Amino acid sequence: MKRFTVAALLAVACAIAAAQSTPAGLWRTIDDETKQEKSLVRIVDQGGVLTGRIEKIADLAKQDATCDKCDGSRRNQPVLGMTIVEGVRKADGESHWDSGTILDPNNGKVYKVRMTPKDGGKALEVRGFIGPFYRNQTWIRVE
């Protein structure tokens, strides 16, 4: 009986560790300049493809902000609830996710993205890039 209990606990611990090493979850984004919380973004895994949308904007004065610099169907749409991460997949044999895009609603630009869980899944390094130019942000797991 002890072996079964230990094995069951190990299986649960492994499942929790695996879940924490994925970008799926709720993340606190941090402003590059002020270092203050900017938003909460929920990333979901839909059949191995990650998407993420803005669930909360920290600055109450920006709750009704629209993406006036966005192109296409996002133009002038509310930032709150907007999907900003699309098409991200786990890289074969790697510890990061890529192949997708991320939108910066502040400037309306869409970047290629790479997401790498850090610190046992408590943090997420998000790299947006165009060609050789990139910017990294560290998002903090909320749940």
Overview of this protein structure:
- The protein is mainly beta.
- It has one domain (2-141): Lipocalin (Beta Barrel), CATH 2.40.128.
- The chain contains 1 helix and 8 strands, in the order H-E-E-E-E-E-E-E-E.
- A hairpin with a 2-residue loop joins strand 7 and strand 8.
- The longest helix is centred in the N-terminal third of the chain and has 19 residues, at 2-20.
- The protein is globular, with a radius of gyration of 17 Å.
- It starts with a helix and ends with a strand.
- Mean pLDDT is 89; it is low at 4-19.
Short account of what is shown:
This protein has 143 residues and is mostly beta strands. It contains 1 helix and 8 strands; from the N terminus they run αββββββββ. The chain has a single domain, classed as Lipocalin, CATH 2.40.128.
Low-pLDDT runs: 4-19
- In the CATH hierarchy, the architecture is Beta Barrel
* Average predicted confidence as pLDDT: 89
For the largest beta-sheet, the strand count, sense and barrel status come to: 8 strands, antiparallel, barrel
- Determine the fraction of residues in helical runs and give it as a percent range: 10-25%
Residues in β-strands, percent: over 45%
Envelope shape: globular
Determine the number of helices (DSSP H or I, runs of at least 4 residues): 1
Strands, total number: 8
What is the ordering of alpha helices and beta strands?
HEEEEEEEE
Q: What is the CATH class?
A: Mainly Beta
Distance between the termini: 33 Å
Radius of gyration (CA) equals 17 Å
Strand order in the sheet with the most strands: 1-2-3-4-5-6-7-8
List the domain count as a whole number.
1
Indicate the structural class: mainly beta
Instruction: Find the CATH topology.
Output: Lipocalin
